[in-house]
Design brief:
By secondary structure, this protein is α/β, with parallel strands linked by helices. The protein has 11 helices and 19 strands. The chain has 2 domains: 3-151, Glucose Oxidase, domain 1, CATH 3.50.30; 162-364, Rossmann fold (3-Layer(aba) Sandwich), CATH 3.40.50. Bound molecules: glutamine.
Length: 365
């Protein structure tokens, strides 16, 4: 595919700012909240991570598509991002393990994207003005109609998206004769979390977002897990109720990202929408219990209030984000309950935080 043959497309931000580029994938219009990820690798894992549902992602890495796709490198079935904004989209790819091009993958999954964008300008713009809704469109003849369409899109704040991506029916993962049984609440679970648990001798029953504590307890698990997922944690009252019951009953619980926020909310700690989230694979964290540093994979736009955790009698901060001092991990005092704002399962990203899965296994013993 020659650059000249690509159709014109635009990235239109909620405040009317327009960035021009060329269309990749399918044509039409797609809407989402614009965010950026600084990872140099792992684009396919990011595109299929359900936590990104409803988001238009800007890749700061200058080359996207150059190592193709591989059917094994997915975090859920199909693409979850609402659109991609990139600098240089590669139609050519080169890697032994890839079994297709990103272009074919986008067409197969119906993703609308834009390339040849000045992504450095986009990122510095959103860094300054904060997260906002945006659209990518090839329907560039009527900008006013696009603006009207974008104005109708709901804000990410207050949006329950976990119910859209969660499984509708419970399912099992791993070996049924494994040593530990885990009941996991699926708010948009990444497959690598299930792989990490199964590799540590867990048999997992994955429940839909609407599951009650009683339904999850009927599996007779050694521990409970609350998953990552898209959208605002605040409206997810049923999940907060489940977390509260698990904690009140003194059971073992581990939460990642959205699950971490749910645990905090269940204890009366508020969450807030960040000016810009953390999305990348080199975010520095300090574990306050061990004093050790970790380089971590992150993807979140909301955060737990430090003020509220510090005012709480039963919750403590266990991990802190070293870039901006935000809360990155909490634990319930004297209970086997802890959670982190980042992604110990990586995919993509470093494995520094994989010890948290071991800690969960220890807590289940
Ligand atoms: N990765 C996640 O679970 C993200 C949690 C939540 N949707 C946020 O943006 O903060």
């Amino acid at each position: 595919m020659k650059y000249k043959e690509l159709k014109k497309a635009i990235l239109l931000l909620e405040d009317g700012t327009i960035f021009e580029g060329k269309s990749v994938g399918i044509e039409g219009t797609t809407i989402g909240e614009v965010c950026y990820n600084t990872g140099m690798t792992g684009y396919q894992e990011i595109f299929t991570d359900p936590s990104y549902f409803g988001q238009i992602m800007v890749a700061t890495n200058a080359h996207i598509g150059n190592y193709g796709v591989n059917d094994d490198e997915v975090e859920s079935e199909g693409i979850k991002i609402a659109g991609l904004v990139c600098r240089n989209f590669s139609y050519e790819y080169s890697r032994d393990r890839s079994n297709g091009s990103l272009d074919e993958y986008f067409k197969k999954h119906g993703l609308l994207s834009i390339t040849d964008v000045d992504t450095r300008a986009v990122v510095s713009y959103i860094r300054k003005h904060g997260a906002m809704n945006a659209l990518i469109s090839t329907e560039v003849d009527n900008i006013d109609a696009l603006k009207a369409k974008l104005a109708e899109a709901p804000s990410m704040k207050g949006l329950d998206l976990a119910s859209v991506v969660s499984t509708k029916e419970p399912y099992f993962y791993g070996n049924e004769n494994a040593k530990y049984k885990v009941s996991a609440l699926d708010l948009g679970i990444k497959t690598n979390i299930l792989r990490n648990l199964a590799n540590r001798d867990c048999y997992i029953k994955v429940f839909p977002n609407t599951a009650t504590f009683e339904e999850m307890a009927a599996f007779n698990p050694d521990g409970y897990f609350l998953s990552n997922g898209p959208g605002d944690p605040e409206p997810l009252k049923s999940a907060q109720e489940v977390a509260k019951t698990i904690i009140d009953k003194n059971l073992t619980l581990f939460g990642i990202c959205l699950g971490h926020q749910i645990i905090a909310l269940s204890q009366g700690i508020s969450t807030y929408k960040m000016h810009n989230g953390h999305r990348g694979i080199n975010h520095p964290i300090k574990n306050l219990i061990t004093g050790k540093g970790e380089i971590t994979s992150q993807n979140h736009g909301f955060n737990v209030s430090r003020e509220d955790v510090e005012a709480s009698n039963n919750v403590e901060v266990t991990h802190v984000h070293l870039n901006d001092n935000t809360v990155a991990g909490i634990a319930i005092k004297d209970k086997k309950v802890f959670s982190v704002q980042y992604h110990p399962e990586a995919n993509p990203g470093p494995h520094d935080a994989a010890y948290l899965f071991d800690q969960f296994i220890e807590n289940m013993k």
